[in-house]
Amino acid sequence: MAMIHGECPKCGKRVLHVNIENVVGVADGTSNARCLSYSCIHCHVVLGVQVDHRAKPRSRAKPAATTP
């Protein structure tokens, strides 16, 4: 089956614009990287996801100090 470039695989409409959303990539049960998700503006099917190399590293919450 040949894929026609520029056409949504779900709704078949031309993909001239996409919705871009920030998402968090999870591997081995931990949040590892900030990613970008691309979806069709017509039917909202996800067209692709990739690591956002330009994003700043996620800030990690410091563990709360326990007092005896």
Polypeptide structure, described:
With 68 residues, this protein is mainly β. It has strands at residues 18-27, 30-40, 46-51. The chain has a domain at 18-51. The protein has no helices and three strands. It has a three-stranded antiparallel beta sheet with strand order 1-2-3, with no helix packed on it. The model has no long low-confidence stretch (mean pLDDT 86).
How many H/I helical runs?
Answer: 0
Strand order of the largest sheet: 1-2-3
Which percent band covers the strand fraction?
35-45%
Largest sheet: 3 strands, antiparallel
CA-based shape: elongated
What is the structural class? mainly beta
- Distance from N terminus to C terminus (CA atoms, Å) equals 66 Å
Reading the helices and strands in chain order gives: EEE
What is the averaged pLDDT score? 86
Number of strands: 3
- The helix content, as a percent range, equals under 10%
Radius of gyration of CA atoms, rounded to a whole number: 18 Å
List low-pLDDT spans: none
